[in-house]
Amino acid sequence: MTDTIRFVLDGNVVTLRDVDPTRTVLQYLREDRQRTGTKEGCAEGDCGACTVVVAELSADRNRLQYRAINSCIQFLPTLDGKELITVESLAADDAQLHPVQQAMVDCHGAQCGFCTPGFVMSLFAVYKTQENPSRKDIDDALAGNLCRCTGYRPIIDAAKKMYEYGSEISSEDQHWMNCSFSSATENAIEPSEMMTVELLRSLAHSQTLHVQHGNKQYFAPTSLAEFAQLVEKHPDACILAGGTDVGLWVTKQFRDLHTVLYIGNVRELHSASVNRKHLDIGAAVTLTDAMPLIIEHYPDLEELFLRFASPPIRNAGTLGGNIANASPIGDTMPVLIAIGTTIILRKGSKTREIALDDFYLDYQKTASKPGEFVERIRIPLPGKNQCVRTYKLSKRFDQDISAVCGAYALRLKDRRVDHVRVAYGGVAAIPKRAQECEKALLGKEWTEETVRAGMAALDTDYSPIGDMRASKEYRQLTTRNLLYRFWLESSGYEGETNVYNYSR
């Protein structure tokens, strides 16, 4: 084992020992390094003022992969073996601004300025990874950055203009923008970036990182076998993936996490593949990487995934973490349940497969046993003539928690319901199937009369909760209305209807 955290900052290797394993990257930057350009706004990964970029080696270890993350909920030890880039890193040694910064200045993208460093870093990640982003790409990239001065139009203008500055800079003057699209093109690695690749290669190790600080300890093994042993040895430990929820336990609930087991360095859990039956996704695969694979086979899920949190959250958070966390408002679970997803649970060297809808028992209580963890997710490939839809209701389009999330999988045969699965999240203590509704639909002709019977049966399946996001009456009404919407879309109905005013 090693007790040394090593990462790259401004081309130099930073070495840390005996640090609090739940100290955030934001705290380290502002309090230890006096890098106050990175701001704290919400301390929960919502506002984007704390955005930084992390670069790590690609799967082939020959280039860098740049991603924006929220430093306010990212634990410091997770930087081990990576490069950290902050807003202070962007300007060249001669103080020449980076093209992103220059574009923000010239387009008047800053107003009060508090949120500006976060916007700059989100745009920097776009600059390094996309050659010609569309307006949709830009809007999505900035979905995790909030500006209370309503300065979005000039910021979007800057996102379009920043590439003009990049093309004007000579090779001698280039700094961070060297070869902007290095992750996308094979022949684009410049010497400065290659130096970072070599540096990160030198930091890579096969040993488990073990950080001890007072009564707290942090383990980051690199093999699945060792991770499984550690989970068995520490069954009450906190398993950390992206930290997009666990981080809030520390920053908002002020919990002391005495033992943390980090899954992010386990090589075997970063793989994703497709066979003739299902998608097989490791528990450490980020949402950013998992979503395109799922959308390739289920294209109608694209909007749901675009509305799932923000890019910095998706860049850090994992599909396995979203499932294992067992939150009733996790947006992936309803549709994964509806299409018949299973998960592989591992304890030591033994594994078992369980249907996702059998995994959730009660509020944040699952069927996993002490010492057991989610190893992989298996998502069935869509069946022939299968119709899959999911709808999310929330107060904001972007970056908001669902009041109701409904998901449906349907197959018809001779206009009759041959197969149907219905699931909802955000309505009750757990995401769950609507089995009484399914019974009311199965075998029946797919008509309005049938779907209204299914809508009435939903009242048996759920006793909706009422909270700050929605009243129980609203949830009861909208679970029915979303099923009706699904019927309209899947039956080819082209008339007008007042769907949202329907009630019993």
General description of the model:
This protein is an alpha+beta fold and 504 residues long. The protein has four domains: 199 residues, Roll (Ubiquitin-like (UB roll)); 54 residues, 2-Layer Sandwich (Uridine Diphospho-n-acetylenolpyruvylglucosamine Reductase, domain 2); 111 residues, 2-Layer Sandwich (Uridine Diphospho-n-acetylenolpyruvylglucosamine Reductase, domain 3), CATH 3.30.465; 116 residues, 2-Layer Sandwich (Enolase-like, domain 1), CATH 3.30.390. Helices cover 32% and strands 21% of the residues. It has a five-stranded mixed sheet. Strands 10-11-16-12-13 form a five-stranded antiparallel sheet. The protein has a four-stranded mixed sheet with strand order 6-7-9-8, covered by helices on one side. A hairpin with a 2-residue loop joins β14 and β15. α2 crosses α5, α14 runs antiparallel to α15 and α15 runs antiparallel to α16. The longest helix is centred in the last third of the chain and has 20 residues. The protein is globular and about 70 Å long. The C terminus is likely disordered.
